[in-house]
């Protein structure tokens, strides 16, 4: 079965008035549009055209072979300003943290609750805009020292914590309440720098972050992170423990289904410093940009190497037919042109940008025609 999915954009403050509207060919929105969820997550499940929430539909869909829960969540994400700095736990960390908070009797919707489920949340963001910027992972220590050196004497408290290949001391200091005055002084020295030279883009971003997030220690955390600029079609993988924050742009995001987020700044929400330091990877690591692998005519595969999901990009031109074999339940979203999917039983659905569908596992092969691009989330093979 090919099942059309619809949902409304979530109006988080960091969302864009124009990015999703431009994708869908409509006027700018009168409120921020941050994310459109195409999945069965109970916080905001997609709906069928008849209005049935997808989680309820899946619970009743045994005849199609569909799972009771999807292993992934697909989103269109439109950021006009930076999201919070955050990291996600591994599967074992999530299971232990969830069990501990359940035993402690902390309500799952409490602001101080960290583990709202027992799953991990690896993510892949595929850029749709010509430029998508993100902070991802901790920068090479030698490069960070060069940036801190430009701060002069004001950077000394941070420089003193940049030793070895473990940035946990620097992160702990940056987020410690009793270091607020020292941290603020370092941030002020960054704001005073001219955005020129090797770190011009980083300094310009940090100045913007400091302006929009006064007194937030996350600005100093951001100073330690890699600034990544993706071009359209490039994909950033964020495994467990990697600090990250999307900065601006439009993309398709696919993640394991989970709400487990440990924040590290740039947010008014609860920051569990001890919890974050317990799960974060404190080593300097380069961002992981996935290499696309050809998977047949018109199809490339983006594989993060996890069992939860991988992503197929399907490009079809007029008068061509692209065959897709998803090997399991799939969620497809159109991002360009207009494409028609025809399943094995002959049923067809057409999609335009911003529209999505769920294909149940009995649809083992599709013929895709038209002219455009699809991103398809399918179960991983790891």
UniProtKB/TrEMBL annotation:
As for family, the record states:
Belongs to the mannose-6-phosphate isomerase type 1 family.
TM ranges = none
In this record, what's one Pfam family? PMI_typeI_cat
Disordered as annotated region, ranges: 93-118
As recorded in Swiss-Prot or TrEMBL, the protein's gene is named manA
**Domain Phosphomannose isomerase type I catalytic: residue ranges:** 3-139
Quote the protein name from its UniProt record: mannose-6-phosphate isomerase
According to UniProt, the reaction catalysed is:
D-mannose 6-phosphate = D-fructose 6-phosphate
Task: Write down the EC number.
Answer: 5.3.1.8
Judging by the UniProt lineage, the source's domain of life is: Bacteria
Q: Where in the sequence does UniProt note compositional bias of the Basic and acidic residues kind?
A: 109-118
Please give the PANTHER family that the UniProt record associates with this protein. Answer: MANNOSE-6-PHOSPHATE ISOMERASE
Q: What InterPro entries has UniProt attached to this entry?
A: Man6P_Isoase-1 (IPR001250), Mannose-6-P_Isomerase (IPR016305), Pmannose_isomerase-type1_CS (IPR018050), PMI_typeI_cat (IPR046457), RmlC-like_jellyroll (IPR014710), RmlC_Cupin_sf (IPR011051)
Establish whether keyword DNA repair is in the entry.
no
Q: Fetch the SUPFAM superfamilies from UniProt.
A: RmlC-like cupins
* Gene Ontology molecular function terms on file: isomerase activity
């Amino acid at each position: 079965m090919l099942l059309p999915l619809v949902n409304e954009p979530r109006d988080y403050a960091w969302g864009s008035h124009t990015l999703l509207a431009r994708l869908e060919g409509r006027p700018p929105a009168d409120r921020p549009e941050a994310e459109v969820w195409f999945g069965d997550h109970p916080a905001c499940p997609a709906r069928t055209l008849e209005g049935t929430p997808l989680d309820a539909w899946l619970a009743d869909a045994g005849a199609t072979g569909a799972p009771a829960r999807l292993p992934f969540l697909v989103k269109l994400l439109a950021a006009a300003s930076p999201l919070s700095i955050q990291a996600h736990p591994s599967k074992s960390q999530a299971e232990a943290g969830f069990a501990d908070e359940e035993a402690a009797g902390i309500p799952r919707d409490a602001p101080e609750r960290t583990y709202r489920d027992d799953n991990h949340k690896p993510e892949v963001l595929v850029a749709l805009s010509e430029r998508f910027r993100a902070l991802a992972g901790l920068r090479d220590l030698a490069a960070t020292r060069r940036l801190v050196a430009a701060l002069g004497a004001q950077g000394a408290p941070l420089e003193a914590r940049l030793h070895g290949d473990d940035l946990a001391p620097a992160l702990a200091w940056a987020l410690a309440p009793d270091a607020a005055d020292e941290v603020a002084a370092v941030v002020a020295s960054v704001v005073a720098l001219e955005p020129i030279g090797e770190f011009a883009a980083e300094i310009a971003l940090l100045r913007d972050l400091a302006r929009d997030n006064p007194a937030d220690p996350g600005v100093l955390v951001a100073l330690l992170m890699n600034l990544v600029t993706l071009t359209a079609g490039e994909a950033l993988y964020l495994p467990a423990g990697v600090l990250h924050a999307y900065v601006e742009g439009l993309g398709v995001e696919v993640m394991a289904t989970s709400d487990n987020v440990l924040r590290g700044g740039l947010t008014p929400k609860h920051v569990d410093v001890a919890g974050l330091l317990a799960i974060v990877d404190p080593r300097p690591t380069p961002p992981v940009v996935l290499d696309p692998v050809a998977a047949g005519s018109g199809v490339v595969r983006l594989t993060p190497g996890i069992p939860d999901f991988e992503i197929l990009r399907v490009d079809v031109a007029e008068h061509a037919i692209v065959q897709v074999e998803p090997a399991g339940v799939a969620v497809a979203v159109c991002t360009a042109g207009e494409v028609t999917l025809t399943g094995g039983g002959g049923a067809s659905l057409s999609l335009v940008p911003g529209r999505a569908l769920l294909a149940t596992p009995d649809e083992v092969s599709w013929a895709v025609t038209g002219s455009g691009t699809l991103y398809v989330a399918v179960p991983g093979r790891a």
